Amino acid sequence: MTGAADCSLGAALRALRTELDLPGAFPPEVLAEAAEAARNPDLAAHEDATGIPFLTIDPPASTDLDQAMHLERRRDGRGYRVLYAIADVAAYLRPGGALDAEAHRRVTTLYFPDDRIPLHPTVLSEGAASLLPGETRPAALWRIDLDGDGVAVATDVRRALVRSRAKLDYAGVQRQIDTGTAEEPLALLRDIGRLRAEQERARGGISLDVPEQEIIEHDGSYGLAYRATLPAEAWNAQISLLTGMAAARLMADAGTGILRTLPLAPDGAVTRLRRSAHALHIDWPHHVPYAEVIRSLDPGRSNHAAFLQECTTLLRGAGYTVFEGGDLPDPAVHAAVADLYTHCTAPLRRLVDRYASELCLAATAGKEAPEWVREALPALPKEMAEGTRRAGTVERACVDLVEAALLEGREGELFDAYVVDVQDRDPAVGTIHLRDPAVVGRIEGGTAPLPLGERLRVRLTRAGPAAGTVLFAPA
Fold it and tell me: For residues 133-162, b (16+ Cβ closer than 10 Å) or e, as one string?
């Protein structure tokens, strides 16, 4: 990307913040409260678990570390124990205070290529509350016992002081496990992750391995790449998923909680997906559930990648649902998880997780949830829906701007692409993936139906940060 493009992209990113009316700097009273909380957290209820050698696994540049884990074999030899420490944000926030009110206004951390808009001031999210290595931190400490098949057989969560010993990244973890140099607590990540993936398969859950665009920075310029998910990331995600399911069960048993829910895909959506499978030459026998078809796909093949993209339509409509008085909502399950599920493992970056932690801590202790939690519950689904929508808008808009800046000045050039989506109402309009550069764009202007899942020569017709998005036409 040229210097001029970098400048125009920077201006476009700044304009995006204004256009979307995103939060700016934290108000002085919020910063003052955060600084005081960082100096004086409420640690009265925390037991000492600093002797457990926790580790974190995150992208290399991350400093807002929500989770730390320690994996071990159970002493009875009948399975495994997952010890999962989640940052205890409630130890720093005073309910009803300026810091709490600001978190409800922001809802989630928002990520930009050049910066982030954090949920909490960085003195907490990247400092006092973050599970940084070598630092003693308050946490909600989960203990989940699994049998030899990876089935959860016992769950406990309590407040504790923990200390991470190492900050690892996914590539390094994968390398250690692949070369056999990982010591057992880390090596068990593969064993437990695989067992939990088998449990996911058994209950009919799905994890979509869709090729994702990633904004990459190099020498002050930005580009795009398709990021392949490492097995270590999937194994790590299974630990988080396990904890979210355990948390949902605790809340269900207690009769009060907030779930992450997703209705089952309607018959019409599955029928449409079957038509796409046929068009993409994907073998889908009628007696085989779509979850099994998804597991058989190779995202490196263009027709498989296109079908995986189509499968994301079945995961739309996820939301947060509150229940009280013992009766679970309908639907109660998350269709992709195929079980009860909630978000509880990212409280530094997502508002709802702090409340889920409190509900689970109270349920484990056999107590009623704190009043400040119960009072906030009814409004949380709407707050989270708006915050999640805003985060998705920011993510897509940032990628659109980088794409547009990357291709600025190349209007009229031809590119090789493959078609990943075709509109039902107008099959000459759809979405394409370019291999190089890693661009996903809209295509229109042709007269013939687009060949879903097939290669296509395309011409760039619009680009540049001023345009905001790229546009292609069949060559």
Answer: eeeebbbbbbbbbbeeebebeebebbbbbb
